[in-house]
Design a protein that fits this description.
Elements: E1 9-10, E2 14-18, H1 24-31, H2 34-37, H3 48-64, E3 67-74, E4 80-90, E5 95-102, H4 111-125, E6 131-136, H5 141-149, E7 153-164, E8 167-177, H6 178-183
Parallel strand pairs: 5-6
Antiparallel strand pairs: 1-2, 2-3, 3-4, 4-5, 6-8, 7-8
The structure holds coenzyme A.
Coenzyme A binds near residues 101 and 108.
Length: about 180
């Protein structure tokens, strides 16, 4: 596992920083929304204790190096609007996976694209990664578009990989190599 030191990444409109217990109410508001949970492979939260548990897990993962999950804040207001995380590190192979979600009020303004670019740059520079992977539901068109905008390539398809909301759901696999990133 990499040693994860707290870091702040600043983009044109966003600040990405380690999450804290103060984020619990905003984190709960984001993941209690059915529209956000729809392709996150789990039911929307119904109890703030779920947000408390999630933040506890995120803090433990920072400490043991298993996940670098950044809270995404609007620079203009300081509001927490979502998060993006690098996780499932395989140090020998210099690869990991990426996950992300934004509160639905903030969709469609390019924020996910901006936040992913910063998190990916951090992954390739600070964590010395060679490859980042993502798997998404093919019906999550906006998520696929974000991945393609930042340079991921579609690599595979796995039918009926998940069982959520009473049905099996497919996966499309995406990958981003450091050399694609450097060439872009
Ligand atoms: C996926 C998600 C992160 C995208 O965030 P966002 O800030 O709206 O993304 P951006 O604005 O940077 O880019 C979205 C792109 O998808 C496009 N898009 C969004 N929904 C679309 C749809 N239904 N059909 C076609 N294109 C769509 C937008 O037009 C935009 O592309 P463009 O810049 O070429 O116009 C956000 O919808 C989300 O948090 N969803 C819930 C959680 C989730 O599904 N996370 C991913 C799990 S794998």
């Amino acid at each position: 596992m990499p040693e994860l030191k707290p870091v702040i990444l600043t983009t044109e409109r966003l600040r990405l920083r380690w999450m804290t217990e103060a984020d619990i109410p905003a984190h709960y508001a984001i993941f209690s929304d059915h529209d956000v949970a729809r392709y996150w492979s789990r039911e929307p939260w119904t109890d703030i204790a779920q947000a408390e548990e999630s933040i506890k897990t995120i803090l433990a993962a920072h400490a043991d190096g298993s996940e670098a999950r950044f809270g995404i804040e609007l620079l203009s207001t300081g509001e927490l609007i979502g998060n993006v995380g690098l996780h499932h590190f395989f140090e020998q192979n210099r690869r990991c996976e990426i996950g992300y979600a934004l509160g639905s009020r903030h969709w469609g303004q390019g924020y996910a694209t901006e936040a992913l670019r910063a998190a990916i740059q951090y992954g390739f520079d600070a964590l010395n990664l060679n490859r980042i992977e993502a798997d998404i539901d093919p019906r999550n068109v906006g998520s696929g578009r974000v991945l393609e905008k930042v340079g991921f390539r579609k690599e595979g398809f796995m039918p009926e990989r998940w069982f959520v909301f009473g049905e099996f759901a497919d996966t499309v696999n995406y990958g981003l190599l450091k050399r694609y990133w450097d060439e872009a």
